[in-house]
Amino acid sequence: MPKTPVQATLNSSSETSTEYSISQLAKEFDVTTRSIRHYEDLDLLSPARRGQTRIYTQADRTRLRLILRGKRLGLSLEDSREIIDMYEPGKTNVDQLKKLIDAIQLQRNKLNQQLDDISKLLKDLNQAEADCIDALKTNGSQ
Questions:
Q1: Is 49 exposed, middle or buried, given 0-12, 13-18 or 19+ CB atoms closer than 10 A?
Q2: Smaller CB count within 10 Å for the chain: N or C?
Q3: Keyword Hydrolase: yes or no (predicted)?
Q4: 98, 82 in Cβ contact below 8 A?
């Protein structure tokens, strides 16, 4: 059975037991340590602790990658959490895929509406500018 994009990411990354510091992940993903701590505060990430030091696993790294991917797609953190948490190893994860498709379609619809709004605004701006230029020509010749 073929793996879903989330399954492939989660499965390939769980094959090693590499550990990461918060600064390593921040550098790798070009985010601030504060952002990573924020995701932890929201229970999106659950690093182990050695004293005050956070120790991130390969699974945490994968979750962070998926959170950031969801963010790039315009998903809310809560939507990303729900989709990521739906993953079940060894299952088809059809519900997870349907949820992701729904979120993508919703985001696409929002962006298409914004694009339409921007097109209308640009048309209005062009008309207002043309009207101003015409008014200057008319007033300048008097």
A1: exposed
A2: C
A3: no
A4: no
